[in-house]
Amino acid sequence: MSLFATCPRGLEKFLFNEIRTLDGQKIKVHDGGVSFNGNQDSMYSLNLTSRYATRVLKRLSYGQFKSENDLYQAAMKVKWDDIFPVNKTIKVSTTSIKTSLKSIDFVTLKIKDAICDVFNQKYKQRPNVDVRDPDIKVHLFLEKNNYIIYIDSSGKPLYQREYRQKTIEAPLKENLAAGIITLSEWDFKVPLLDPMCGSGTLPIEAAMMALNIYPGMNRMFGFHHWYDFDKEVFHKIKVQLKEKQIEKELHIYASDIDRQAFNAASTNIDQMGLKPYIRINNRRFETSNAPNDHGVIVCNPPYGVRLDESEKLLESYQLWGSVLKKEFSGWRAYFISNDMAFPRGLRLSASKKTPLYNGALDCRLFEFVMVAGSNRKLKQEN
């Protein structure tokens, strides 16, 4: 089968590597995703294990079109009634790039009509539409005069790991957080600190990586609603993945100035059973002390779009830069921000600026290598 896995832009190479380990064939990297040929096992496995993918889409039909009616006829040729039963709810979404179509909403409606007409012609019944929480998601991708019709094997986005019981304003998506951890090259041995942890996404993803806890083990997927869902094969894959989980000592630290964020992070960490691996505090970054003489900082600080307080943020940048120089010499720090002047605000020079997208926000992951100074006090881990 032909599959396409989407991901946040900037993480394609990591998704490529995941697919390669699952013996995917004809793997090709695109902007915002990776296409490949696979089978049922690899589709199940990628949904269960991927730390970077957003969705895994299965291609049903592709070709060229001139009009909306061509797309309707193409959708009519798909044997929808062989894929899922009529009592399942559906939703159709359309992505259009450089097409001459006048209305994307109208095209989306035509694809929905085609699916319903296939069922209606055979059973005199049609599936209901549910735009909020459908059983079946169909994606139409249009580029110039080319089309692809996909069915979504994932259902809810794969960054929804089902561990986030509590959240805060502007949380970082879990797959982007996993990408940041990977880009930091944290080796699971040195301490890792998130000094503005919000609801705890970065430290949780870090712990899951280190312990081989796979993201999709506690959730449902779109393919559960398909006729060809193989319960035995799916269960066998889950058992094999569960056996790969390991125990090890980790030194992960998290903190946040906001009490609500601290409570949310504590709840989410406890929900995942990660309390023994993550130490969390309710405090300002400016009052932090390094738990060791070397380690890695990962952080999603507040920025303009999230908090409309530019002057206050500039003051904070200077304080953060000061504490990094004073307390964290010997460490590497990674901050994601859409503020391209962020390093200047810290009064530090970034050694790397990796382009990433936080949703629609064009961001950079700034790397700062804090060189150990002569006045650095050696500190032992708490």
From TrEMBL:
Matches recorded under Gene3D superfamilies: 3.30.2130.30, Vaccinia Virus protein VP39
UniProt keywords, alphabetically: Methyltransferase, RNA-binding, Transferase
InterPro entries: DNA_methylase_N6_adenine_CS, RlmKL-like_Mtase, RlmKL-like_Mtase_CS, RlmL_1st, SAM-dependent_MTases_sf, THUMP_dom
Pfam families: RlmL_1st (PF22020), THUMP (PF02926), UPF0020 (PF01170)
Residue ranges of every copy of the THUMP domain listed in the record: 42-153
GO molecular function, one term: rRNA (guanine-N2-)-methyltransferase activity
Name of the molecule in the record: DNA methylase
Species the sequence originates in: Methylophilales bacterium MBRS-H7
Lineage: Bacteria, Pseudomonadati, Pseudomonadota, Betaproteobacteria, Nitrosomonadales
